[in-house]
Structure formats: C-alpha cells, structure tokens
Amino acid sequence: MKMAKLIVFDIQKFALHDGPGIRTTVFLKGCPLNCSWCHNPESKSLRPQLGFLAKNCISCGRCQQICQNGVHMLKETGEHEIIFKNCIQCGMCEKVCLNHALKLYGKSISSEEILSDICKDRDFFEKSGGGVTISGGEPMTQFDALLGFVKKAKESGLHVCLDTCGYASTENYNIIAKYVDLFLFDYKITEESEHKKYTGVSNALILKNLDFLCRNGNDVFLRCPIVPGINDHEKHYLAIAGLSRKYENIRQVNLMTYHDMAKGKAAQIGEIYSLEHLKTIEKNEKQKIYETVQRLGCLKLSEG
After folding, report:
1. pLDDT tens-digit readout, 156-170
2. Is 3 helix (H, G, I), strand (E, B) or coil?
3. Strand, coil or helix: what is 121?
4. What is the pTM of this model?
5. What are phi and psi of 175, to 5 degrees?
C-alpha cells in the first residue's frame, strides 16, 4: 500500500540547530497558527505558493512568455512585477527561470524518495548522534502522511525529532509518540488572551499536549521564541522557568530570540509582514534575556 505524499517546502541538510547532532530537516507545509512573527510565512498554507527573489531576476522575460495567466509583468524599466493572485501554481515559470529568481514552495514528495536521500548521510548521523527532524509549518497538519514517514524513518534506524507548535489532537500525539525520539515543542506566549491575539488560537490545547507528552515519558526540548514587545517580559520568563522545573522530561530549554529574516520572506510570496517595525535582537540583549531566565530558576537553558 502506497503512503500519502508529504507536501514539502524545503529540505535542509547538515542542520545543527534542530535537535542533537548533524541532521536533515524536512519542512512541511500547513499550520493551524498564524504567528505574527512567523519565520517561515511560506509554510502557513497547505497549498503551493510562488516565491519571487527579486535580487536574482535578470529580466529575461522567459517567465512572462510561458505564463498564460498574467502573473508576470516586465515593465519598460526592467522591473518585474508579480500578480500573485493570478498564479495557479503550475510551476512552469520556475522551470524556465534562468537565475533561480522563482521558486514554488510546496511540492508533493513520497516518504520513500525523501528517506532514500536522507539515508545517504547516515554516516554523519551515526558519528554525531544526529538524524532527521520534521519541521514546518506544523507537521501534525499532515498527520497521515507524517505518521507513515516517521514509521519508515524508525524502521530505517534513524533518530527522529518532531518540531511542533503543540496544536493538534492529543489522540494524534499519543499515536505518533512511539515513533518520535524527541519533541521540539514550542512555548510561545503565557497569557491565553495574548496567545490568541498574536497566534490566532488559544494555548489551552498546547499546554494540555505538553503535559501529556511529558507525563507519557517522551523527551522534550522546550523551544521559546522571544519577540520584542510581545513576550519579552519577566512574567513569561518566569513561566518558562516554571515549566522547566515542573517536568523532568523537558531535557532542555532553547530561547529562540527574534530575527527579522521573515520580512523578506513574506515579501517573496506577496504578503505584508505585520511586524515590519521590529528589529533583530542583538547579541548583548540576547545575553541579558538568558541571564534573566536563569535568575528566575531555569536550569536547563541551551543555545537555541
């Protein structure tokens, strides 16, 4: 029986920050949250999306010639305008682009094809204690295909990490937990009202699932994005420290301080980034945050 294909928007090899050791990270499309600061805006929708890297465009006109839907407009000045709403995600413009200025985010790939490629790096995984990480988006959005993939990955002897926002049914976490060696679990905002405001959903189910995984005996790295003006305050830091002490199975806490890379990525897919005014948290400020969280009782901090 053939497994459902995964909708993938990126695969990164030799990743060093998505779990232990050297890893291959598979990024899946689709997410039930709508985080204002999202670093991967191209991951939110399940459907494929056209991306345009303006700096790579040489205005050759090949995309305009092949597209029959009026997506590409080359002005007399040489400026390349994209009418994103006209795109039907056929991918033809990406194929004819000479300088990789166009990219279709979201391609259906079989688990067998992905694992065949990943296993070529098995020596690096074994020597470093690494493996495969499934990230997103929210991988649990593609649950059936994800489950098939992690089962195959474990059969192949790979160490499996699942990077999750925690917003999926507890039943599904119970089903998949036996095939996952480590959960990279997001803890974004402490106050429920603020969580709804900045992510679009309540954090009640997320906290329930964190509690379930920890009590179920699953290893967890708690990943905490720190965003200026949203959750960079002592009440949130105190809650992070409290969770790290409450659950023995939270093996590590990673503070993921804000970086403004998402501004350019949102523009590439024709979206407006709502936190345009925010700037990357600099190294000295990052150190102050680490020291504060430690002072408040978190003893499991590690570089995010």
Report:
1. 999 999 999 999 999
2. coil
3. helix
4. 0.94
5. -70, -45
Determine the Cα–Cα distance for residues 74 and 81; give it in Å rounded to an integer.
6
Tell the CATH superfamily of the 6-46+106-303 domain: Aldolase class I (3.20.20.70)
Bridge partners, residue 301, by sequence: 253
Which amino acid, one-letter code, is at 150? V
Q: Supply angle C-alpha 300, 301, 304, rounded to 5.
A: 135
Domain locations in the chain as residue ranges: 6-46+106-303, 49-105
CATH class as words, domain 49-105: alpha beta
- For residues 275, 278, 279, 284, the Cα torsion angle rounded to the nearest 10 degrees is -130
Confirm if 56 and 101 have CB atoms less than 8 A apart.
yes
- Residue 262 contacts residue 272 (beta carbons within 8 Å): no
Q: Summarize pLDDT for 74-124 with one digit per residue, the tens.
A: 998 889 999 999 999 999 999 999 999 999 999 999 999 999 999 999 999
* Cα angle: 275, vertex 276, 282; to 5 degrees: 85
